[in-house]
Structure formats: C-alpha cells, structure tokens
Amino acid sequence: xxxxxxxxxxxxxxxxxxxxxxxxxxxxxxxxxxxxxxxxxxxxxxxxxxxxxxxxxxxxxxxxxxxxxxxxxxxxxxxxxxxxxxxxxxxxxxxxxxxxxxxxxxxxxxxxxxxxxxxxxxxxxxxxxxxxxxxxxxxxxxxxxxxxxxxxxxxxxxxxxxxxxxxxxxxxxxxxxxxxxxxxxxxxxxxxxxxxxxxxxxxxxxxxxxxxxxxxxxxxxxxxxxxxxxxxxxxxxxxxxxxxxxxxxxxxxxxxxxxxxxxxxxxxxxxxxxxxxxxxxxxxxxxxx
Length: 289
Known about the structure:
The chain is α/β, with parallel strands linked by helices. The protein folds into two domains: 4-86, Alpha-Beta Plaits (2-Layer Sandwich); 90-288, Rossmann fold (3-Layer(aba) Sandwich), CATH 3.40.50.150. It is 34% helix and 28% strand. The chain is built from nine helices and 14 strands. The protein has helices at residues 18-25, 50-64, 80-88, 132-144, 160-167, 180-192, 208-214, 226-239, 258-267, and strands spanning 4-11, 34-36, 39-45, 72-79, 94-95, 100-103, 116-119, 150-154, 172-176, 199-202, 219-223, 247-254, 270-278, 281-288. The chain has a seven-stranded mixed beta sheet, sandwiched between helices. A hairpin with a 4-residue loop joins strand 5 (94-95) and strand 6. The radius of gyration is 19 Å and the shape is globular.
C-alpha cells in the first residue's frame, strides 16, 4: 500500500461535460471518480514523475474536451493514514435490502437467518456500498439473480458485486477489472468473504472480444461510466447468448444520461425491465427484447 495518494481535482466551465471528464480521469485514478470540490476528484498511487503525470492528464483532457470547457487540473498529496481515518469516521453497516448488508470488517452485525453480510473495507477500489450506484446494483441484483447463474461483473473494482452474486447463489462469477491495484483489494475481499473458489478475476480491459471469449452468461453486471457502457451494449447482448432469460444490470449512469443509454440499449436488442433511482443516479435491469 502506498504511503500517500496523489489527489487529482478537475474542474470545467461546463458541468454538462463532467461525464466526459470522468471517462478521461477514471484510468488515472484506478477507475474511481468522485463528484466533489466543485468538479471531479480521483486518487492515484504516487507516480514516479508527478509533473509528467499531471501534464499527460491535462493534455488528454484538452484533447477530448471542447476548448470552451477550459478544464482546470489541480493536485495535492494526501497521506494514506489520513485517507483511512477519513473513511472510518462515521462508516458503519448498511442494510441495502432485506437480505443484503454491507459493512466494514471492524463493525459487527447480528445477521438474521438468510441475510447475506458482505465485509468490504474502504480502499481506493470503487465499491463499498457507500455510493448510490453500488446500492442500486445490489438492489436489482437481489431481485433477479437466480441460484446457479453464471455471472460476469464488468469493471469489478473492489469486487463487491461479484461477491454479492456469489453469496446469493451464483455458481460462477467472472470479475473483469484492468486495474492491478483494484484487483489486489478485490482478492483480499474475495478471501475475506469466502468466495474465492467461485469468483475469478480477469485482469483485462473488457471489450467485445473478451466477452465473447468468456461467455455466455446468464447475468451481466456493469457498474461503470455510461460512456463505457453504451458502446458495449451489443457485446453484452451477445454475451447473454441470445436467450430471453438473460439479464443485464447497468449503473454508474446519471439520470440526465439515461435517455441515451435507453436509446442505445433498445438499438442493441434490449428492453428496460426495471429502473432503480437514487439521488442523481440511474440504474436499470435490461432484458433481451
């Protein structure tokens, strides 16, 4: 674990461009981006050359965004112990559904029969149950997962969704995540929750070829950015093997972005079966039309 984190803050003159900023920023911050401080914030492991790292990010942003957006990048250091203390303050168990509880390892929970308690400690990998997109996915997952399902979690981060799927009865889960630091945390989480025998981590970038190689699946989970989800929708449809029983859960989508996602999903052969909304975030269960 790094001793300190590079905190990247990106602000733009046009708030409507924040989703595009997030797509550019996410790989620099281990796939996790937070909306805070009047813009977007990501935490990166200490690079060898900070100036070159920040300069590369700035150039990427200028290349992707209109000149009028004027992206502004700032950075600072944050000690790792400060990060851990910040997350622990006020962080406790969350009962997401009647059946699913997510908690840090330092908290206790008196589980009722049939409850699934998932232990996830806050790390840099995205996914602790503290974000609305994760909760939306878990609620939909609890509704539609069937014992014996074969599942893929695309952009698995901390592996919280993969763990939940395994604990709810999936026979096999493939967790696809290209970030090695996130996968270090994910492997700890798999072992801590006793599902390492049913969840396999594939450290690659998800694309149509990889999904075709790994599939078919009964259920696809994608809690990632809408700009990543939309081009992958035809591949998700193919990964479900053409069966009407296939299910796709998408999240990480702002409500304002949802019409575009629905349009592309319908063009790829899906229909919207269920919607989950919390705060400004939109999650959905899609089924083959």
